[in-house]
Amino acid sequence: MYGWIWRHLPGNTWVKALISLVLVLAVVYVLFQYVFPWAEPLLPFNDVTVNNQ
Amino acid sequence: MAATTDGTAEHTDDGTERRPRRGTGRLAQAVSVFGELLITAGLVLGLFVVYSLWWTNVMADRTADRQADKVREQWAHPAPSGPGALDTEDGIGFLHVPAMHNGEVLVKKGTSPDVLNDGVAGYYVDPVKATLPTSGKDGNFTLAAHRDGHGAKFHNIDKLSKGDPIVFETRDNWYVYKVFAVLPETSKYNVDVIAQVPKEAGVTKPGRYITLTTCTPVYTSRYRYVVWGELVRVEKVDSKRTPPKELR
Fold first, then answer.
1. B33, B66, B67, B210: which has the fewest Cβ within 10 Å?
2. Which residue has better confidence, B26 or B227?
3. Cα B186 to chain center, whole Å?
4. How far apart are CA A43 and CA A49, in angstroms?
5. Structure pTM?
6. Which parts pass through the membrane (chain A) (predicted)?
7. What topology is assigned to B88-247 in CATH?
8. Average pLDDT of chain B to the nearest whole number
9. Which of B60, B215, B226, B227 is catalytic?
10. Domain range holding A26?
11. Is residue A35 included in any domain, yes or no?
């Protein structure tokens, strides 16, 4: 999977490495900004109140 | 692994003799992709831990500081007339708990995630509405805040023991409470702990109580941790906002 991505990136090794880094950062950004805030309330780690439900 | 897979794929294109090997190549490829997916899942879970225990704190502290500044600003320069003086949109005051060593915690209305995720403590409106100390009536000032992540304002709640002061600061008053009971573990359905007269704390008469609730053990929310205090005295805020002796 990652090998396939690497082979399909343009340029020489350095350009590929740079693009990979940008891609990784983009993925981390999407995770922190959208995916984790969405997933967090669904997981049982952050309920602090007492309630009837 | 990937190289072998490629090699196999190229060779198999030449002839039909190596068909069995193509199967192995496919299998190797599938296993390789599966392995990479597992590694990816591991990294994502690791990142989620970083997110919950660090990044949410960074964000929440930032928001809470901004809101706290706004509240202080409003206190210093109250709106000239009208309901501005009673504006509690940004928060009603600050909680100071010396035993928790985390400075001041802004207190806002409500205990929904939207409120608490901003790194503040919220007072209950549901299922039992809190009685605000500013009302001057007997009742229970019930609060909740996060144990971990989102500012983790009650992270050190276990450091509180009987006799420790809890101070609530409003624009005009310091409300000094003293802890008189701690419940280290209870069910999350136990709404009796936030009753106006919290019998679980061993009191039977109405009084002016404060209740802090959060989750326990740390990093999970299996149970609730509860601390009760009773009002000892109320001090007027002076022109220099000199804190009461418990905070000095």
1. B66
2. B227
3. 18
4. 15
5. 0.82
6. 14-36
7. Sortase; Chain: A; (2.40.260)
8. 87
9. B215
10. 2-39
11. yes
